[in-house]
Specification:
- Helix content is about 10%, strand content about 60%.
- It is mostly beta strands.
- It has two domains: about 1-30; about 30-275, Porin, CATH 2.40.160.40.
């Protein structure tokens, strides 16, 4: 999207802001406030949407990833830092929301282990737009599911992406289990640019997660993910903690551990979700 320029663009932005304020002030109170639900910290997306007129910011303060790879480039180790990747969720209707995901600032170092040679790139990542539609379960059902189409826009700098438009669709599911446990699952089909840069590949991701409150405010999750496509399957085991500060603020931290050679060896993060 391109912002307006000149005095007419300035007026248009203010008109949009005024409409947004009126929408939040008059539309949001019509609907009762839901329990805070988030699309983080696990890899399994939530089928629940936020109330119309509300905004929810979900972000990692910092995310770290390390992986050792052997391939055409030899034996290399990749270390990546992602500073403040953020997902901004905007409630549109009682069952839909728009999400804008920004990778923000990336710092990626590739080290060729036999020679010790290092290549380091820093810059901004891509932007992903997602639309979530809750088909069932937004307001109190024991099970819920939704549909989330998305598209990635190549906004990266310094070669920190493949400079291709990609997309796919996600179908998330959630259900309450006995004993205070919760269950979540997700299937996702992606259309991604291939390594040869001459076409696209289909990649299929499936996840399953269980969660439970340990205390009134502290919770934990355990998760498995499996991604299959043209190459070797990539599987991870994930775990983390959540801490509810208020009804509109949650803190979290977690680790993802690679179970197959195609998956990153280790990912770790700490972040938060804040509803406005």
């Amino acid at each position: 999207m391109t912002a307006g320029t000149g005095r007419f663009g300035f007026a248009r932005r203010h008109a949009v802001s005024a409409c947004a304020c009126a929408w939040i002030a008059f539309v949001a109170p019509v609907y009762g406030e839901r329990e805070l639900t988030t699309d983080r910290p696990d890899a399994t997306e939530s089928p629940f949407t936020i109330e119309p007129g509300r905004v929810q910011v979900e972000a990692s303060v910092v995310a770290y990833e390390r992986d050792r790879e052997t391939g055409q480039e030899g034996d290399v180790r990749v270390v990546a830092w992602n500073l403040a990747p953020v997902n901004v969720r905007v409630g549109l209707t009682p069952s839909t929301e728009l999400q804008v995901i920004v990778d923000n600032y990336l710092d990626v170092e590739v080290k060729h282990l036999p020679t010790g040679q290092r290549v380091r790139e820093r810059g901004f990542g891509d932007v992903t737009l997602r639309y979530k539609y809750n088909v069932q379960g937004n307001d109190g059902d024991s099970a819920a599911w939704g549909i989330m189409p998305f598209v990635k826009i190549p906004t990266n700098t310094n070669g920190l992406g493949n400079d291709s438009v990609e997309g796919g669709i996600i179908v998330p599911f959630a259900a309450d289990l006995a004993g205070g446990w919760g269950f979540g699952a997700m299937t996702e089909l992606d259309v991604l640019r291939n390594d040869a840069d001459d076409g696209h590949d289909l990649v299929w991701l499936n996840t399953a997660t269980v969660s439970r409150g340990l205390t009134e405010k502290l919770g934990a999750f355990l998760e498995l993910t499996l991604e299959v496509g043209p190459g070797r399957p990539a599987a991870t085991f994930n775990s983390g903690l959540t801490y509810t500060v208020t009804e509109n603020l949650q803190l979290d931290a977690g680790v993802f551990i690679g179970l197959t050679r195609a998956a990153p060896d280790l990912s770790a993060f700490a972040g938060f979700a804040k509803r406005f």
